[in-house]
Amino acid sequence: MKSVILFDGVCNLCNGFVQTTINVDPQGKFQFAALQSEFGQEILTKANLPIDKLNTVILYDNGKIFTHSDVPLEICRRLGGFWRLLLVFKLIPRALRNRLYNWVASNRYRWFGKSETCMIPTPELRKRFL
């Protein structure tokens, strides 16, 4: 199984993040699943995260789970190329990065809105969604 990015399927910011990742990942290194999906709920349970509070994107890779500000940095690391330059943000202590991440996450619906339903991928992208 490829690395899976789990996201809040009704969050417009999260859907934008997924669309951007798809566009910069033409090799298809990542698959995607909504946190609200059966797979997403299973991973939240494994990570001891509440299944009803969808406040972080998750990167799941063969049993290893990344959350909060570690997710975009790990994605950049795996994408390689110039994306690795963004790893400079790892110099910022995780507690500070996560504080900023949580502030954005707690305001994401207000700033970016939310959809009534999860994103429906195009037929050519369906194979990348679980």
Shape: globular
Low-pLDDT stretches: none
Largest sheet: 4 strands, mixed
- List the helices and strands in order: EHEHEEHH
Rg estimate, integer Å: 14 Å
Provide the number of structural domains.
1
What does the secondary structure layout of this molecule look like, with pairings?
Elements: E1 3-7, H1 12-24, E2 30-34, H2 38-46, E3 58-61, E4 64-67, H3 70-79, H4 94-112
Parallel strand pairs: 1-2
Antiparallel strand pairs: 1-3, 3-4
Please tag this protein with its features.
single chain, 130 residues, alpha+beta, four-stranded mixed sheet, 4 strands, 14% strand, globular
Short description:
The protein has helices at residues 12-24, 38-46, 70-79, 94-112, and strands spanning 3-7, 30-34, 58-61, 64-67. It has a 4-stranded mixed beta sheet with strand order 2-1-3-4, sandwiched between helices. Strand 3 and strand 4 form a beta hairpin.
Architecture overview:
Helix content is 39%, strand content 14%. It is of the alpha+beta class. The chain has one domain (3-128). The longest helix has 19 residues, at 94-112. The protein starts with a strand and ends in an 18-residue tail after the last helix.
